[in-house]
Amino acid sequence: MALSSPEQNHKSVEIWSVEEDAEIWRAFSEPDSDNQFCQAWLALLCRQLSGITAGVVLLQSAETNTFLPVTVWPEVPRDLSFLGKVAERALIEGRGVVHHPEQMPEELIHVAYPVEVSNRMVGAVVLEASSRSESEVHALLRQLHWGVAWLHDLFNRRELKKLEGKSERIGSVMEVLATALRRGRLQQTLFDIANHVGRQLQCSRVSVGLITDGKLRVAALSHAAWFEKNASIMKLYAAVMEEAFDKLEPIAYQQPAEDDSVSVVLHDNAHARLARENGAQSILSVPLQLGAECVGVLTLERKESSAFTETERAWLDTLASLLPAVIEQKRSAERGYIDHFQDDFRKLLERLFGPRHLIWKFSASLLMATLMLMALVNINYRVSAKTVIEGEVQLDAVAPFESFVVASYVRAGDTVKAGQVLCLLDDRDLKLEQQKWQSEFEQHSRKLREAMANHEMSDFQVLSAQVQQSEAQLALVTDRIDRVRITAPFDGIVISGDLSQLIGSPVEQGKQLFKIAPLEAYRVILQVDEREMRHVKLGQRGKLMISGIVGDPIPLSVSKITPMATANDGHNFFRVEASLDQVPANLRPGMEGVGKISVGERRLWWVMTHSFTDWLRLSLWNWLP
Fold first, then answer.
1. E strand or H helix at 517, and its extent?
2. Ramachandran angles phi, psi of 175, nearest 5°
3. Could you tell me how far CA 279 lies from the centroid of its own chain?
4. Cα(300)–Cα(280) distance, integer angstroms
5. ∠ at Cα 127 (126, 133), nearest 5°?
6. pLDDT one-digit tens code per residue, 522-544
7. N or C: which end of the chain has fewer CB within 10 A?
8. How far is CA 418 from the centre of its chain?
9. What is the 3-state secondary structure (H, E, C) of 366-416?
10. Is the pTM value of this prediction over 0.70?
């Protein structure tokens, strides 16, 4: 439409013939195109509404994203650009607009109504009508709103047609993918794909090429289970695919007419040579890209003169977006471990020395710096071991004879002084026995004096022996009575023993009642793993951390190494004794902790890896012949 003001004001409603009316209704009910439907709809609308002098239907253009007129009424050439202002208002405001133009030879109004589908403006209907009352204008808008529903139906049918086409396209593509996902080797899969695509798009031949390490090779041809890879035609197919591979975009070739010599000269590429060689009229090559990487090329040939339509290209685009992942998965599954390792190593080198991947480069640099630091730096290596505190001297308080427990005054954990009574044994039987021997001693002593007075030498010797026996037995019983009180031999702590629950129970001679250790003399027992024993020597220094006394480590020195191993938790441990430089006031026998013996400086790398390397050496020694 021209952008100038109109020269005529009004056009009277025409008289329609029966044939014209029938033709309009036929075009409305059975349109050949969307434009024909809009033209018939606008004609019927303007006929049914009174006082309409002109009408325009504006629809959104997909190419330019602007609104363009698709039909006008009447079809008599006329400048209708003056309706653009009211149409723009309706599209912007999203509602029906009535405009009363100024400087018009007759009183006319401009009415515009937007066409909105799914919250999106797709067009507008603009009418020029004779001036009328406000109620008649509202009636006109309601009738226009009612009539615009046909345009809504047009767009809904158009969207439905697109969705049906897309659904059908996806369904057929999924059939190809189902063929590709079936069990079988990649070569057979590509052959089946080529045949399926050829049947789907009515192609005379479909070829599939794969790209490995930047090199392209023809992998499959439709209707050809075997082909000579070094044949000239295969090299021509490879050249065709390389053209699409180099551009990374579809390449379409249409055979020019025989008399068009200029086109023949201009299109002297691999596609043109393949078309002349095979007699194909149309060739289309589509790269198969997986992300930014091209894994293959699909080449289609037609011996018919018809080119590939937009619908067929859309189908191929859908296939090309899904098929590469399946091909790459199949190809990866058939590759060996060495190939996988080479690929992974190559990708690692690309990330470390190629462009981008800054995080990989930074991480590799940090790892290299760490390894160099571990290989060059020396640290003080310390052997760790589980540690137990024992008293330097441990004495047992045992039962001196068979008796019964009368009282118990201490138990494990109590601090005792030298001579302090620990427990009391029953002495009633001993006192009776003491009285018995005392009586016999006095009786034998009286008889001995009588024999001495009577000078009876034989009786004197016998009675002397009896007196000595009675005196010895009496001394023995008296000594036992003195030992019924079990006392502490020195100042210390009771390590074990609790007779508070055994009052009145019998005890056997020699049974351990208590174990006592001194409070100021301790020794440290370290259980060193046999794998670390080669580093431990007498006199080495170390530190000890006690679980119950968490604080500053306690200095120690190795004083004795026992050459006997004991098994514990599946490992062998050697008993190493150490002495403390200073004894904390709250240190007690039986406490446990962790001791670390300094064995000298070692490389940080050796400290971190020697356990593994020792295990590896032993394993290799065990398994190697």
1. strand 512-518
2. -65, -40
3. 54
4. 10
5. 125
6. 788 999 998 888 899 999 999 99
7. C
8. 68
9. HHHHHHHHHHHCEEEEEEEEEEEEEECCCEEEECCCCEEEEEECCECCCEE
10. no
Please tell me the total number of residues recorded for the chain in this structure.
625
**Nearest Cα to Cα of residue 576 among 559, 588, 593, 592:** 559
Q: Report the C-alpha dihedral over residues 375, 380, 385, 390, rounded to 10 degrees.
A: 180
Round to whole Å and give the CA distance between 159 and 169. Answer: 15
In terms of Cα–Cα distance, which of 531, 529, 596 is closest to 380?
A: 596
CA dist list (Å): 271 to 200, 263, 304, 567: 22, 13, 16, 81
Q: For residues 219 and 296, what is the distance between their CA atoms, to the nearest angstrom?
A: 9
List, for residues 124-150, the tens digit of each pLDDT value. Answer: 888 888 888 888 888 888 888 888 888
Tell me the per-residue pLDDT of 166-198, one tens digit each, with 9 for 90 and over: 777 788 788 888 877 887 788 888 888 889 888
522, with CB counted inside 10 A (0-12, 13-18, 19+), is: buried
Q: What is the pLDDT of residue 206?
A: 92
Region of residue 357 (phi > 0: left; psi between -120 and 50: alpha; otherwise: beta): left
Q: Which two tokens stand for residue 186?
A: 């990649």
Beta strands 395-398 and 251-254, pairing class: unpaired
For residue 181, what is the DSSP state? T
Take residue 454 and report the two structure tokens written for it.
């009577």
